Amino acid sequence: MKKNSKEAIITAAVSLFNANGYDGTSIRDIAREAKINAANISYYFRNKRGLLEYCLTVFFESYMEELEKGYAIIEFGATDCLKKIAENLWTYQCNHTQLTRFVLREMSIDSQVVREILSTYYAKERYIFKAVIEQGVETKEFSPHAFQYLMIQFKGLLSIPFLNTQYLTEVLHVFPHERYFTDKYLQEIYKWIEGIVCSKPEKQKECMLKTS
Questions:
Q1: Secondary structure (DSSP) of 167-207
Q2: Which domain, by its residues, includes 6?
Q3: pTM higher than 0.85, yes or no?
């Protein structure tokens, strides 16, 4: 058994899940792609569902770790905190493009494992994001917004490039795998935070005068 056979299985599985869908990929397909014996998959993951759950868990554990790292600087202000969260999550997803694409597509399907993720990882993500927004509004860094709609916009900015790669490359002629795009797109997310989420300078002055 190769030392890296587990990693080879995951890489092969994610690639095939993206190309053929989870249901359209068999254990034999994964073993063939990974150039290992199918018994190795049973050894590490028991079955295809176990492999799916492992991929989702690995993604969300790391995703939440990056989210919490960003949230850790909340004491320096809500704006810097939200930017850091965006940077961490965007960088993580760009470094794991195939896995991100597969996970985001899988999360659009109603299943037991998806419902479990919604009630655990995504519930915690919602709590953190809401805490940042509420602090920003309280300190007058952010304009008052409907939290749910900000969350939709933020999540959309972070996910659309991975869910619509063909549209980006063939219609818009931008390439998500290129460093130029990833750097430029992060700057656009910052502009969204500064232009939509943050209070306008004149509004901040107005709020300060009202409270003084």
A1: HHHHTS---TTSHHHHHHHHHHHHHHIIIIIBPPHHHHHHH
A2: 1-46
A3: yes
Q: Which two tokens stand for residue 198?
A: 């943050």
Tell whether 6 and 106 lie within a shared domain: no
Whether residue 67 is predicted with pLDDT greater than 80 in this model: the reply is yes
Neighbouring CB atoms inside 10 A of 36's CB total 21
pLDDT at 190: 98
Q: Where are the beta strands (DSSP E) in 58-194?
A: none
Average pLDDT, the chain: 91
Same domain, 5 and 64: no
Confidence of residue 201 (pLDDT cuts 50, 70, 90): low
Q: What is the CATH number of the domain that holds 96?
A: 1.10.357.10
Residues 28 and 81 in one domain: no
